[in-house]
Amino acid sequence: MTSTLHPMLNVAIKAARAAGSIINRAALDVEAVRVSQKQINDFVTEVDTASEEAIVQTLLGAYPEHGILAEESGRKHGKADADHLWIIDPLDGTTNFIHGFPVYAVSIALSYKGRIEQAVVYDPARNDLFTATAGRGAFLNDRRIRVSKRTQLKDCLISTGFPFRTGDDYAQYLQIFTEFSQRTAGLRRPGAAALDLAYVAAGFSDGFFESGLSPWDVAAGSLLVTEAGGLMGNFSGEADYLFQGECMAAAPRIYGQMVPILSKYSKFASAAAKNEVATRSNALRQILGIAPPAQAAPAGE
């Protein structure tokens, strides 16, 4: 099947596998990996850096005129004003990795004039390769994948990400958690957004939502979801999500049932909805002794 893939996707796969080899070697002795902390609960390792370097070298070796947006190096590499922009997370799920919890992935997407056209999410622990090209469908290890066929939210397994950064609103998340816990078959927090989205695309879970995400967390996974027949958007259900720090994904009928729950928690919610959520959050903070959220750094670049 490799010969039928888009040439740029083939290069992305080569880059992802090169990074995966670095990650797998390091996983054999994860306690020896040097770890530093970018901010509270936000870690970076020498493996992240080495993986990113391998990816960047592979991509620019094939396409030196392309741009790069990477988690660790930002826009340092590549052509700054290129129409083709590679969006890279060399190790999504670093906290899992440094604890030996085998849920992490390499995420590589190619954007052309703002539209995601190629995507690879590679799980090196399982040797699972998720790929997509715009208009050509989504695949797992050369097998076509589709989103879940479930039609009722009450029957669904939904994945999410728990708050962990400075500035996250724990009281608001408790409200969201309560609403979904009462309306679904279960919530899961695997800890790697790229894999969460890939699993929605493959029908392993029925939906996903999380706030505080950056473009490299969701770019590749978003194309997997849409090419597998799903929908992607912000908490209001609108298509503007890549740089907004909030996203949701699901099969179409489940997506429609998630929007009414999440829309009031969106940055795009009405003033009345925001005031209602804030009132409940303040009450929860008083009951549970939760400090109000500190000012967070903006998501994205």
TrEMBL record:
A Pfam family hit: Inositol_P
Keywords, A to Z?
A: Hydrolase, Magnesium, Metal-binding
One function term, GO molecular function aspect? metal ion binding
Asked if RNA-binding is a keyword of the record, the answer is no
Q: Which residues bind Mg(2+)?
A: 71, 89, 91-92, 217
Q: Kindly state which reaction or reactions the protein catalyses.
A: a myo-inositol phosphate + H2O = myo-inositol + phosphate
Protein name per the record: Inositol-1-monophosphatase
